[in-house]
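Entry: 4-hydroxy-tetrahydrodipicolinate reductase
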Amino acid sequence: MRIALFGFGSLGRALLAAAAAMPDVTVATIVDHAPGLAGTAVEGPAGSLTVAPRLPPAAAPTVLFHATTSDPERATAEIVAALEAGYAVVSAAEWLFHPWLRFPRAAEAIDRAARAAGRAALGCGINPGFCFEALPILAARTLARVDRFDILRISNVSGVGPSDFAHLGFGLDEATFRARVADGAIEGHMGFPESVAALAECTGVAIDAIEDRLAALPARRPVTLAHRTVAEGEAVAITQVATGFRAGAAVITMTLEMHLDPEFYGRTPREAVRIEGSRTLALDIAPAAPPVPGAAAMMLHAARALGALPPGLASPLDLPAGGSGPTRRLSAGPAARDGSGSRFALAG
């Protein structure tokens, strides 16, 4: 699989590291127009690459990993340009996981460009992407009837870059945090309403309203990160709760705790899913998937399965549950049996 990286911040670097662990992945291009990055040399899995300031036309079938911005207008323009340049696209923009909820015009523009180019595009990451959608959807298949979801993710996000740090609302005092939430400058995790809608649509749980609420925890001790120090009294953790309602009752509750210093506050990264319906099911995963490396891995695996999709804008939930699907190459020889069972030699 030939790939290009568009945006070389923390996620772009994680994508490069993940690609190095996949022998069949070739990194062909790295693009970032930031003055401090454009023109610099980067050591890739197959040798040195120079960060380009602009995206060149795709010289061969290539999947572009878009990791520059979550702003809908700017992201849409960049993704459409990439499709017109011949790339298939996997974007980290959170709202693009299920853009039909709040951004139908952007979804239409990307879908039109993808169809015209004969390529597929989708938004994918770890959050949204895993414990709030894919995991509960798969688990819900074991219930004949689903009435309610309650999902929790506790995440250590101390490795996020300055851009995510700012748009999530870390490092602010309580009054500033509240004011910026009220005027829309801070949305926290931008794709949370999309996660609620996607889960409802995929599982048949009817909802008629969505709420998205944020609360900040002030630091009781300073926390030093790679790009700044969070002082006492500034937001060191953010809890975001997205709720899907039906007739005033909560039927989908998603809680995301984002921490810069989780252990100090008695919180351990984990992911938990509880489903109520024809029976009650509970799953607990520890530790939680790390935000940046986890997103990189999810994006790369989604890219492998793009070939199963027709041209156009898709959702990761359209992809086969088995990734790119079974290869059907393995075949078993005759069973060698003993008193404890059997062993098969495999070919393929």
